[in-house]
Specification:
The complex is a heterodimer. Chain A is mainly α. Chain A has a single domain, classed as ABC transporter involved in vitamin B12 uptake, BtuC. Chain A is built from 13 helices and 2 strands; from the N terminus they run ααααβαβαααααααα. In chain A, strands 1-2 form a two-stranded antiparallel sheet. Classes of the chains: A mainly alpha, B mainly alpha. Chains A and B meet through helix 4, helix 10 and helix 13 of A and helix 5, helix 7, helix 16 and helix 19 of B.
């Protein structure tokens, strides 16, 4: 019984939150890595692109709610998602046409791209804050819990409860669907293959008759979809605040580099690695050891590797360790 | 497009603009803007040394500014004796332990540089040291933080004049930059950008949450000043006489003695604030001129030529026998030291240290906009960038207000759109910055004052 309790404890506090947060990071990291692989620069405006997409989804959700439309047990935001994706694609393509294309044709160095992406970051930051304001917004509606801790206890008779929020399940299901489609597209379809070819060797791809404009267009479309979906899932699970979205860029970058920048599968694993280390290393294992250890060996301290304040710092530290050990990432980078 | 703008013209324009703000808004606003322009100019010169001279992309500006800010606390605040006697020894021991860890990591790197498992040793040491450090320091930290938690709860500082902290901030920043540089500088440009950004995130987290050191989110207020306090000024005889002298014409128009005294009192109060800011401006001006002088000297010296050679063609410079790695590390430390100096100046001017206010947008990317807009590789450009960007940053809110009122003038006072737009006025500065950066990068990629190319 104690053993079961300890397993439930870990599932409730580490595994489920880890999977949720990891999925959100993974979706974001795949977007960053695709931009890096195909367009060859680190996009600092990505966090704010996520914020923009989520903002459109929220506005649409409010509109739908005012019309009395809802999605039953599921959050209305899922209905609003397509509109958010469409507008985010439009914004991405607009910035690509007005800003990035010029530097791409000039074959500028990566630093110039980073700098102009900073400019776009400032603009998007302003647009989001002007339109929706800097405050916390909770736009989750529909059914909140699939399983409440108390119900679980009553059901199983265990001491530890297991709470499953519906947003957690939605996040997981959406991530699985999005990633399966994405990886199928990249590995099996002709367009996906040509995208990979372009990322691997631009000149050779051009020689084989691949249209670079089409590749760039498709990349921005995919990236905008990923950004909006990741942003909306994060906002549903926690809440929407423009500043948090900007801050989330940092663990997303960490996940991207840990997985090998330019490698989508690596970014996927990197997201989960970062999420699980952030949650796993800041969790206090006292109660867990209480269950599995005999009473005489009960721990007196919290058994916490590092305090929760350092949650973000862990992902950065992992990144630095990875950069020292394997500068190309755990999974070799630059291969879509 | 004007090819070459003389820097004197630019600075005259900025001076005129500042004077105009003084005349139309108030001298207090104009001077506090000028002071922040000067501090920003120092920050921008620090970044310019790294990016303009050597081509090193440092997105960790925020972290080094925070270290400079921390230095003001460590230097100028009076020590908390109870805290020292309660947990001082524990903190000192853990400090020694930390130093030992860092040194042993460097030793392993040096002595066992060829060893197959070198990296794993380093990794193991770092991983083991964190719980150990917590074990050693934990009890003392909780003791220190429990002493007068509401008013102190930290170790305090050395109770020295705050001017010293500027130099201490520079030295501390250089030391941190040494460690960061050792780890990160070998990376490619875009990796370097991301990793320095993340390192600055770690530094901010430490400053924010180690309350025994910096009071963390509880902030340190009422820091010392290198200039007189307004309250003391308002009571001193010479200052009142000075105010009387400057406003003699205004005062002589008033006949009623009571009204005259109240007017004089009001004038003394407003001018004491202006006087304090003026003192700050003078000190900051001296700092800007000294740093500018030495940066120009360095840029035009053989060393500066070498740095530019390394920046423009690393391989060739290496082939000429220059030690690129060492020079990169040195210039990274030098630039970070100047940034740390500016960070200490900023906190001194504010009079309070608020770790939670350090955000990358304001303290890293804005400084970068200054450098890129002003002119990469040109010290005058960096100073100009500091001025222009800070001017726009401050003045864009009133400007946006005017524009919004112009466009929504026909709308009703209670109109939702008008109200919403007026509330979001502060965010128009981000828009201005972004558009400014994009336009400069497109049409004047070398900045307002481009780097001077010297041909012999």
């Amino acid at each position: 019984m104690d053993f079961l309790n300890s397993i439930i404890l870990l599932t409730n506090f580490i595994i489920i939150p880890g999977i949720t947060y990891g999925s959100q990071l993974a979706l974001g990291a795949i977007g960053v890595t695709l931009i890096y692989g195909v367009l060859r620069f680190a996009n600092f405006a990505y966090g704010d692109l996520m914020a923009f997409g989520t903002m459109v989804v929220i506005l649409m959700t409010w509109y739908l709610q005012s019309k009395g439309i809802s999605f039953g047990l599921l959050p209305t935001a899922l209905l609003a998602l397509p509109i958010g994706i469409l507008l985010t694609i439009a914004v991405s393509l607009f910035f690509d046409k007005t800003v990035f294309e010029y530097y791409r044709n000039k074959k500028s160095n990566p630093v110039t791209f980073i700098v102009v992406s900073l400019g776009i970051m400032f603009v998007l930051n302003a647009v989001v804050r002007i339109i929706i304001g800097p405050n916390d917004i909770n736009f989750m509606d529909g059914h909140k819990f699939i399983m409440k801790a108390r119900e679980f206890k009553q059901l199983t008779g265990l001491n530890e409860g297991l709470a499953i929020k519906s947003t957690q399940v939605i996040t997981l299901v959406t991530t699985i669907i999005t990633c399966s489609i994405l990886f199928y597209f990249l590995n099996k379809t002709k367009t996906g293959k040509s995208m990979r070819a372009y990322s691997n060797n631009e000149d050779l791809a051009l020689l084989s008759g691949i249209d670079p404009k089409k590749i760039v267009l498709i990349t921005w479309v995919i990236v905008s979809i990923l950004a909006t979906v990741a942003g909306t899932l994060y906002g549903l699970d926690k809440s929407f605040k423009p500043f948090t979205y900007f801050n989330n860029l940092l663990p997303i970058f960490a996940a991207t580099i840990v997985g090998g920048i330019g490698n989508p599968l690596g970014a996927f694993y990197g997201g989960f690695l970062i999420a699980f280390s952030e949650i796993g290393l800041t969790y206090a294992y006292k109660k867990f050891f209480k269950y599995i250890m005999p009473e005489s060996l009960e721990p007196s301290t919290l058994i916490q590797f590092i305090s929760t304040d350092y949650k973000f710092a862990i992902s950065f530290a992992i990144l630095i360790v990875v950069l020292i050990f394997r500068p190309n990432g755990i999974f070799k980078g630059k291969v879509i | 497009m004007i090819k070459n703008i003389d820097f004197r013209i630019c600075f005259s324009v900025m001076t005129i603009l500042t004077v105009l703000v003084g005349l139309f808004q108030s001298w207090g606003i104009a001077l506090s803007m000028l002071n922040l322009c000067l501090i920003s100019a120092v920050m921008a010169m620090g970044v310019n040394i790294q990016w303009g001279f050597a081509g090193l992309i440092n997105f960790g500006v925020m972290g080094f500014l925070a270290i400079g800010g921390l230095a003001t606390v460590l230097v100028s605040v009076p020590p908390v004796h109870e805290a020292w006697s309660a947990g001082g020894i524990g903190i000192l021991i853990s400090g020694l332990f930390l130093a030992a860890v860092v040194i042993s990591v460097f030793m392993i790197n040096k002595k066992l540089s060829k060893h197959k498992y070198k990296n794993y040793f380093v990794f193991l040491i770092i991983i083991l040291s964190i719980p150990l450090l917590k074990f050693i320091a934990g009890p003392s930290i909780s003791k220190i933080e429990s002493i007068n938690a509401a008013t102190s709860g930290f170790l305090g500082g050395a109770n020295l004049p705050i001017i010293f902290s500027w130099f201490v901030g520079a030295i501390l920043s250089a030391l941190v930059a040494f460690v960061v540089g050792k780890v990160c500088l070998g990376l490619r440009s875009d990796y370097l950008a991301i990793s320095t950004l993340l390192v600055s995130g770690i530094i901010i987290t430490i400053v924010k949450h180690e309350e025994w050191l910096s009071r963390g989110v509880k902030n340190v207020i009422g820091l010392k000043r290198p200039v007189p306090y307004e309250v003391n000024l308002q009571e001193s005889e010479w200052f009142i006489n000075l105010v009387q002298f400057f406003n003699s014409s205004k005062l002589s128009n008033v006949l009623d003695p009571e009204v005259k005294i109240s007017l004089l009192n009001q004038l003394v109060i407003t001018s004491s604030g202006v006087f304090v800011k003026l003192c700050f401006s003078l000190i900051f001006l001296v700092v800007v001129f000294v740093i500018l002088y030495f940066s120009e000297k360095a840029l035009n010296s053989p060393w500066g030529r070498m740095m530019r050679a390394i920046r423009d063609n690393e391989e060739a410079a290496r082939a000429m026998g220059k030690n690129v790695v060492k020079q990169h590390l040195f210039i990274f430390m030098l630039g970070s030291a100047i940034i740390g100096f500016a960070g200490a100046m900023l906190v001194t001017y504010d009079g309070l240290f608020t770790p939670s206010s350090y955000q990358p947008l304001r303290y890293t990317f804005l400084i970068w906009v200054m450098v890129l807009l002003g002119g990469t590789g040109n010290n005058y450009g960096a100073v100009l960038g500091g001025f222009v960007v800070w001017f726009i940053w401050i003045q864009s809110a009133p400007f946006a207000m005017v524009v919004i009122n112009l466009f929504t003038g026909h709308l009703d006072e209670t109109s939702y759109i008008k109200d919403h737009l007026q509330n979001s006025v502060p965010y128009f500065r981000y828009l201005m910055m972004g558009l400014g950066l994009l336009l400069v990068m497109r049409y004047r990629p070398k900045g307002l004052l481009p780097e001077k190319v010297i041909k012999n």
